[in-house]
Records
---
Amino acid sequence: MKKPPAVRPGDEVTVIGHVFETPLVVRGRTWLPVAQFGAWGIMAWLAGKRRPQRTWGQRLWVGLMTMAVALGSEWLHNLAHAVAAHLIGKPMDALRITWGMPLVVYYDLNDQDVTPREHIVRALGGPLFNAALLIPLVGLRCAARDGTAAREVLDMAVGANVFLSTVSMLPMPGIDGGAALKWALVADGRSVPQADEAVRRVNRWMGVALSVAGAVAFWKRKRIIGGVLALCGAMASAIGHGLIEE
Ligand SMILES: [Zn+2]
């Protein structure tokens, strides 16, 4: 199975603006902010579950704020990729908004006009920005009193940025860590096909390691972490065995 590209060259898209030289594009109505409304509903429900004494208004307000920091962190991650690409003079081909969320578009993943080092800089821009954001966020979180809505929102902000600076660095093709590893191998003298094969080999082993870690997490009743690890493990195994291609 090959992951379909978010936009192909020549696809009919509407350019709604530019960010850091990158065209911001949409296709039909697929830009509608479904992710925002869906996440708002889930987070309002969770806000009520955490504190059942909350009124409906309070649940909606806390849900709105936690949704905004979670999805906003993902937006900032992608905009940081655009900034990194802009700074080295190799802007991304497009940033497509799908269901309210951004998708980074590079038409040619093995673009020969982009050096291995530049590929790495573009890939690291997003995760490094989220890691840098953690410094003020952790400080603010420590300052917020336990049990307040501000603390809940900051817990989400810290969690989202930890996730975006770590999970995105897993060495999987299609995410930042995979691109960084591949181009580091190419910079080290390997051909692109050799680097792709080496990344697949890493994924075969990582699939086993993450699945074991997921099982341990479930056994220790850490269901959310266990679920994320199991999902990443299954993805890595599928990539490692060539079932999913970038
Ligand atoms: Zn990224």
---
Amino acid sequence: MNTLTRYSGLSLLFAASLALAQPQPQPASDGLYRELGGKDGIRKVVETFLPLVLADARIKENFADFDLDQLNLRLQEQFCELSGGPCRYTGKYRDKTMDGVGTVRDMSTVHQDLKISNAMFNALAEDLQIALQQHGVSNSAANRLVAKLAPMQREIVTVKAPTTSPDLGKLLATGGVSQVEGAGGGGIVPWALISGYGSRDSWGANLHYTYLSTQDYRLTSYGVALGVADRLEISLANQQFKGSLAPLDQLDIRQQILGLKLKLAGDVVYDQDSAMPQLAVGVQYKRHQQLGGLGALGVSKVQQLGAKDDHGYDYYVAATKLVLDQSLLLNATLRATRANQMGLLGFGGDQGDSVRLMPEFSVAYLLDRKLALGAEYRRKPHNLGVDKEQAYYDVFVAWFPSKHVSLTAAYAVLGEITIFNPKQQRGAYLSLQAGF
Ligand code: HEM
């Protein structure tokens, strides 16, 4: 299959997935309403949800002095109507000055004076996810309800609340995990997500340690990433690649990667009502630190293996779409690179030295709000005669027990590495991320 057919096939795949994301006008179905347990189920969820909100230090103050019985009824109506149930949200409001006759108020009118920030909006959404889970509502039904509420962020959030302290204001798992080059994303592909849990009014950071072991090689990566205002990501990672099979059993390659990523447009959570993905651009500066263990062959620099340089830049654009009502995350990344084995074997070479555009894809299914299962593909250029560079693949499971730690386990295929050892390198990948 030639490259062109493969690219167009993969891009078609991503376009089709985005088309999937485009909310199609659905005939009024009460499927979600029934999965929520009908009126009785919704009442029980709201009656668990509101006490969670009133106990939530992040937002409870906002509800002081309001008629919570009224709010309870209105929320039940709203969730019933939104889920296709036989209800109409009335929003009728009786306050102390009026005689019980009011006007139906949209979400922006209701919330306009409440000074709600993104972090508060997300806190409320998390409390709702917990209430739904406590009532045994399926993950996909819970995601479908949240998918209907998420775009209301544009109406409900009215303030920016800049804070110097980390606010943990993003929904669980929406900072991604740490990719082997240190960027926020999947395991081998950077996504358009900004690392850490800082909302647009704050910042977050995390450390990662990743270990990948194949039949004949071990790759470790460790580093730190900072996410500022859910807009800018700065990361620094160190990679060490070691051999275990003679004559490469002393191989010890090290490189350092400095990454910058800027979110350009879209929001992975709030844009549930459009096909628009979150878009980001990034650059990774990679510098070789060491090529050890080939002294016997008289080799101490990657240029002696045919590489043109021992440092270089990768540029990428990433589009990440969270299709909540399908519990799916889709990502496509296009990387401009001349790196060999992500830079571990230098940049450019005897087989090619031009910057090539390489596609990378990830798909993940959200099993619940703490667990995702997925797969990734990363195509790479073949510049070096001594290296049989092939695409990387992995299947992964990522667990987010809290916003402070995530654990990712994967089975990764790195393809054949050197022509001297024509064996598909495959093995276990484990990554720990800790932060806020
Ligand atoms: C998707 C998110 C949200 C939805 C769907 C939602 C829905 C509603 C509904 C249906 C009402 C009743 C309106 C009425 O009585 O006419 C309401 C009122 C209220 N909401 Fe929200 N809300 C959301 C987010 C928030 C957030 C993040 C806060 C604060 C942290 C908040 C604070 C309030 C308060 C204080 C009231 C009472 C307002 C009043 O009675 O005048 N809401 N909301």
